[in-house]
Amino acid sequence: QVQLAESGGGSVQAGGSLRLSCVVSGNSISRYDMTWWRQSPGTEREFVSRSYSYGRTDYADSVKGRFTISRDNAKNTVYLQMNSLKPEDTAMYYCKTTYYGRDYWGQGTQVTVSS
Fold first, then answer.
1. Could you give the CA distance from residue 12 to residue 41 in angstroms, rounded to a whole number?
2. In this structure, what are the phi and psi dihedrals at residue 63, rounded to the nearest 5 degrees?
3. pLDDT tens across 25-43, in order?
4. Cβ atoms < 10 Å from Cβ of 88
5. CA angle, corner 70, sides to 111 and 81, nearest 5?
6. Alpha-carbon gap, residue 109 to 95, rounded angstroms
7. Within 10 A of 2 (CB to CB), how many other CB atoms are there?
8. pLDDT at 115
């Protein structure tokens, strides 16, 4: 069974940094795209970043230049380095993978940025 576990969230002041991790068990991530999403109360879950299995990365415009996604296939882990954090980055952050047409999500990790 595929399971994802996020960690690394916390409370920081604006301008600070956090590094989120997502450890995947039950499946090797090396051949699969991995994505980060976030959701604030009362809003829909929104795309943040994608790490393609072949190396390319994508970012939402709102985080481009501040966030960096990376992966360590040997550790079955994907990371999200978040710099220059803003109050509007406050959200629950989730990682996701799609395996045989089914989406798998982690439980999320909370990021709170104060002004």
1. 19
2. -120, -5
3. 998 999 999 999 999 999 9
4. 11
5. 30
6. 9
7. 16
8. 94
Report the pLDDT averaged over residues 82-90. 98
The Cα-based distances of 82 to 5, 7, 10 in angstroms read: 18, 13, 12
Q: Read out DSSP for 18-86?
A: EEEEEEEESS-GGGS-EEEEEE-TTS--EEEEEE-TTS-EEE-TTTTTTEEEEEEGGGTEEEEEE-S--
CA dist 33 and 27 (Å) reads 12
Q: What is the percentage of the chain residues whose pLDDT exceeds 90? A: 95
Rounded Cα–Cα distance for residues 84 and 74 (Å): 29
